[in-house]
């Protein structure tokens, strides 16, 4: 019998030896005691590998748990697969018409289910019990490659029409499908090796559907309280309804519209919807005679600047005179800026702002005084006064954009009735298919990659590298206040990923293979492959997307 070749495996700088063909799951088990949570994947020399894969070369391995971004994504994906399998088992395959995993909501996924059953908590309790039964059995989640035509036929037979339609636009001759106890599905991304890894979850009836509660990276073994931001949920739900009204619920629907030459009508219809929403907000502001401060906040790459311009145009149409105020001009002088735990300047915390000077100036304006407005010199790190004055007259409103605009501590001296607060975010509702959602953070990251490259000369690698820091700032300074807004504005455009594909794809191919950012770049490239591209020719110059791809009529 031929002796198996031994391969060198480096883990944390120490060399080990394993025989050829050793499953990565076996290797992971040797290091599991070093980690508080299950190892779900391995990073082999910059490439993510599922644990069922086997050793075939000398390599360095890094263990991935749910405390890592790829790990928590794998856990979520696997939990969704388990839930869908259990739902079919409990409700009966013949009775399930559709299960749609729509979007995230307060450490949970909102899901709608349609079919010949009564969706109530009793049914969900039975589904959750079935999930726990399957988890206890540690059933294998098997992956296999099948011909694309065979996969399309399989999903049509199983009445998973959305998946069959999606695959009909793939050029690959083969696709990977996953099976669990006879149930077959298609997923975008990696899976855990068996159901025994999926132990922390919960199902709860919510609004017109239910939520699958899941753990977070901070504490993968625990479910936090479900405290949904209801205003955000309502906006997401309405956005879903608008998309369904245009017959575009997923990427397959969008690709069908593009391939049939219907992209332009879709673009114009969605842009018209967005303009109407902005007009409605302006009309609401105009109806509140006491409002003098329009406060706009939202996470990175939400399109705040273009939205502010378009809102100002609509406010003028309502007979008001808007004046733009940038809160960046109220940064503290650099020497007074607080530092974070790493000794770096913390420009995103409220402590970086001269809150008292801002409130003093705004109160004086509210009282009818003329105020000299500051300009922040970012090169020198000081606030300067250059003789720019402002006074509020009848019909004047200030349009103020900044990270802290929803935080009442930032505007503590201003009467509540004088403020109109707007939360803007790219709350994408277009998913790959019914079982594969697109996180809104992915849509914002694609926007940011293109804008950074076009306006700042940053590489995609640089943008991906700084993204976790940007996200932490959002978690601390924006998301806690989103539901305090008077109105939520969803800046996501249903066609935008297809538009951005042509711009972002070459930038992502430029991320070096040996860099830490390559894994994320590769994931985004795979994601973009699902979309047929849309040219920018018919994108209006007023479109929010012009803030990212250029060619707009606003100076942003």
Please, could you describe this protein's structure?
With 556 residues, the chain is α/β, with parallel strands linked by helices. It has three domains: 6-65, Ubiquitin-like (UB roll); 71-228, Threonyl-trna Synthetase, Chain A, domain 2 (Threonyl-tRNA Synthetase, Chain A, domain 2, 2-Layer Sandwich), CATH 3.30.980; 233-549, Rossmann fold. 37% of the residues lie in helices and 21% in strands. A five-stranded mixed β-sheet has the order 2-1-5-3-4, sandwiched between helices. The termini are far apart.
Q: Could you give the order of strands across the largest sheet?
A: 2-1-5-3-4
The CATH homologous superfamily name of the largest domain equals: P-loop containing nucleotide triphosphate hydrolases
- Mean pLDDT over the full residue set: 94
Strand-residue proportion: 15-25%
Tags for this model:
single chain; 556 residues; alpha/beta; Ubiquitin-like (UB roll); Threonyl-tRNA Synthetase, Chain A, domain 2; 15 helices; 37% helix
Helices and strands in order:
Blueprint: E1 6-11, E2 14-19, H1 24-31, E3 39-44, E4 47-50, E5 59-65, H2 69-91, E6 96-104, E7 108-115, H3 121-136, E8 141-147, H4 148-157, H5 161-167, E9 174-180, E10 183-185, E11 202-206, E12 209-213, H6 230-245, H7 251-259, H8 263-287, E13 293-297, H9 304-317, E14 321-326, H10 355-366, E15 371-377, E16 382-390, E17 396-401, E18 419-425, H11 440-456, H12 460-477, E19 487-490, H13 496-509, H14 518-528, H15 546-549
Parallel strand pairs: 1-5, 13-17, 13-18, 14-17, 18-19
Antiparallel strand pairs: 1-2, 3-4, 3-5, 6-7, 7-12, 8-9, 9-10, 11-12, 15-16
Helix pairs in contact: 2-3, 4-5, 5-7, 8-9, 11-12, 11-13, 13-14
